[in-house]
Amino acid sequence: MAASGRNIIGETLRVLTADLESRVAPHLQDADAILAAKMIADLLGYLAIWHLEPLDRDDPSDATFVHGPAQSGIGAPPWPSDVPAAGLERGLRAAALQQAIEEAASPDMKLLTAAVAGDSALYQAEAIAAPRIGASAAERLAQVEITLDAERAGKLVRRCLGEGYEVESVVRVPGGFSKDSFFLDLRARTGESERVVVRRDLPFGPGETRVVAEYALLRSLAGRDLLIAEPLGCDPTGIVGQPAMISRRVSGNSGTAPWDADPVLRRDICLTLAGVLARLHAIVPADVGLAPVSCDPREQLRAQVLEWRDRWRRNRVHASPTLAAAFFWLLDNIPAEIDRVSIIHGDVGFHNMIVDDGRLAALLDWEFAHLGDPTEDLGYCRQFVEPLMPWEDFLQGYRAAGGGDYRDENARFFELWRAVRNAVCCSVSWRGFLSGAYPALKMAYQGIPLYRVFVHHTAEALKEKFQCETPAATP
Fold first, then answer.
1. What are the C-alpha distances in Å from 277 to residues 310, 339, 345, 395, 396?
2. What is the Cα–Cα distance from 105 to 168, expressed in whole angstroms?
């Protein structure tokens, strides 16, 4: 059942309580921090139940409110401060009772009894419900997300890799906004160790992408010097709750912190990336079994925008004039020149790369791969590359490795497109959270703060474009 407007806050508070209690508090060491976490969890618990379904449907004060004070001409008082969100109706009943008791000329036992019985029932219900808020959120999540433990991971390994392996450890990788990832340490019967990565579809994925398609693409791209983590197997049946794939784990780290202070390493790593992108973009899609929607690159891009507009329309839960305006602009401003339809990674940044011992070792997370304009990848990675080396030098390395032209006009188009696509992903996540399809904290996080960041970026980009396109006023 979809969360109603009255309990969106409650559902969000519910998952905040659950993650604080189960994922944050157990790892705290400082006594003051432990106490603060306990107080925060208790507060969140009460706030959550106040914003969820009323606990007092059998409140004994109902009859008194309807048949007693309401008939005595008692007006509606201000929102009662002691019951801030348990429901406006109950708040009015409580305030009406309070006013009737204070204005009574003599004690009215019916009013007094109703007041005490009603509040007592409510507080007892709160005392029972509040401590279980976190547990109830965990139970709801467990209904749609299976925990990947060693036993289940072993079933996946046997399905994908065959017999002969024992799962020694399973570690969930932090983040996972579009896929869940896990590190597995395996021990073969021969005694050798193996380190692999599991990527699993979410119960309700932001980009509506599937690991089955990602695995098939990576298999088709193998052996082309694209620094892909070797795909080892895929289970489309959901033996671990959702379809999942296994790839070989590449040694090293993501991000730039270990090497961005070294100008030689910065340049070498960025130029290696330029070569990888050039080789990727030079592949003829048909050679790896991919068929574009159209041989016309402009029509291919238009189809891409329409696909994402449809995804937004199917999943949005609130209005966004900004996104509506953005899709209108994008469809009306498809770049005039696109050289070819290429395979696009779609999320080229150092958060999706592994660098090991000063060399680029792997380009990861291909779930957004599609066919389109190579400038999309180049424009996306520019924000990560330019702080590390001159952009023109990067483009020179890209062209030297076989890459085509980089057009600033196309890049400006994809600056807006990037913000729009990410906003749509967040919109889909919010629907997944509110509908109960995937009531996880990371879905709410994408649906509220991240969504607003990307829509703000979209609005700022549109403001700039509209100003550029508005004719100058006549003096």
1. 29, 15, 9, 11, 13
2. 76
Q: Report whether 90 contacts 81 (CB < 8 A).
A: no
Residues forming a β-bridge with 197: 183, 247
Q: Read off the pLDDT of residues 131-164 as tens digits, 9 standing for 90 and up.
A: 888 888 999 999 999 999 999 999 999 999 999 9
* Residue that the structure tokens 């991919």 belong to: 290
Helix (H, G, I), strand (E, B) or coil at 112: helix
Cα–Cα distance, 295 to 291 (Å, whole number): 9
From CA 247, how far away is CA 168, in angstroms rounded? 17
Amino acid symbol at 351: H
Output the pLDDT for position 100.
81
Is the confidence at residue 76, as pLDDT, over 70? no
Q: How many CB atoms lie within 10 A of CB 54?
A: 15
Closest listed residue to residue 268, CA positions, set 276, 318, 58, 404 = 276
Cα separation values, 373 from 81, 288, 311, 334, Å: 57, 17, 20, 11
Every domain of the chain with CATH number 3.30.200.20 lies at 150-248
Classify 333 as helix, strand or coil: coil
pLDDT per residue as tens digits for the range 381-399? 999 999 999 999 999 999 9
Domain spanning 263-468: CATH superfamily:
Aminoglycoside phosphotransferase (APH), C-terminal lobe (3.90.1200.10)
User: Which fold, 150-248?
Assistant: Phosphorylase Kinase; domain 1 (3.30.200)
- Band of the pLDDT at 110, cuts 50, 70, 90? confident
Residue pair 411/375 in contact (Cβ under 8 Å)? The answer is yes
The answer to whether the beta carbons of residues 202 and 178 sit under 8 Å apart is: yes
pLDDT score, position 130: 82
